[in-house]
Amino acid sequence: MLILGNLIGLIIVLFIGYWVAKTGWKLRYLAPFVFVVTSILIMILFIKLSPSEWERMQFFSNGTFAFNELAMQAIILSSGAGGIVTFLLVLGVWAVRKNVFF
Questions:
Q1: Which parts of the chain span the membrane according to its record (predicted)?
Q2: Angle at Cα 74 formed by Cα 69 and Cα 77, nearest 5°?
C-alpha cells in the first residue's frame, strides 16, 4: 500500500508540474506563493488540531519577538511543510520541462 501511495503522489506531482509548465506560469512568482500559503495552512491546521497547545504558545513578549518552545516547533513544522511542498512543485515542473519520465 505504501508503494501505491507513493506512486499516486508522484502522479499528482507530475500532473501539477505539467499543468504549471503548460500554462506558462513563472516559478519565481509561484514558488514563494505556494510556500507562504502552505505554511499558513499548516499553522491553521495545527491550531485546529491542538487548541490547548496553541493557548500556551507565545510569539511575543513585552512587544518583542520571544518564542517559546511550542512556538518554535510550530514555526519549524509549518516552514518545513512549506519547503517540502515548494520543492515538490519545482521538481515536478522541472521533470515535465526536461521530459524526465516521458
A1: 6-22, 29-50, 70-96
A2: 120
The residue segments making up the domain with residue 80 are: 26-96
What cell was used for 84? 517540502
Whether the full predicted model's pTM is greater than 0.85, yes or no, is no
State how far the Cα of 76 lies from the Cα of 10, in Å rounded to an integer. Answer: 25
The helix/strand/coil state of 65 is strand
Q: For residues 99 and 76, what is the distance between their CA atoms, to the nearest angstrom?
A: 34
Report the number of distinct structural domains present in the chain.
Answer: 1
Residue 102 clears pLDDT 70, i.e. is over it = no
Once rounded to an integer, what is the mean pLDDT over residues 48-56?
A: 83
